[in-house]
Amino acid sequence: MPREVDLNNLPYADGDFYAFEQLLNESERERLQIIREFLAREVKPIATDYWNRAEFPHELIPRLAELDVVSPVRRQGYSNLFAGLVHAEFTRADASIATFLGVHDGLFTGSIELLASEEQKAQWLPEIYSLQKIGAFGLTEPLGGSDVAGGTRTTARHENGHWVLNGAKRWIGNATFSDWVVIYARDVDDNQVKAFLVDTSTEGYSASKIENKISLRGVQNADITLNNVIVPDDYKLAHANSFKDTNKVLKVTRLAVAWQAVGLQLAAFDVARRYAVERQQFGRPIASFQLIQDQLVQILGNTVSSLGMMVRLAQLEDAGLAKDEQSALAKAFTTARMRESVALGRSILGGNGIVTDYEMAKIFSDAEAVYSYEGTHEINSLVTGRAITGISAIV
Question: Mean pLDDT over residues 61-67, rounded?
Answer without folding.
Answer: 97
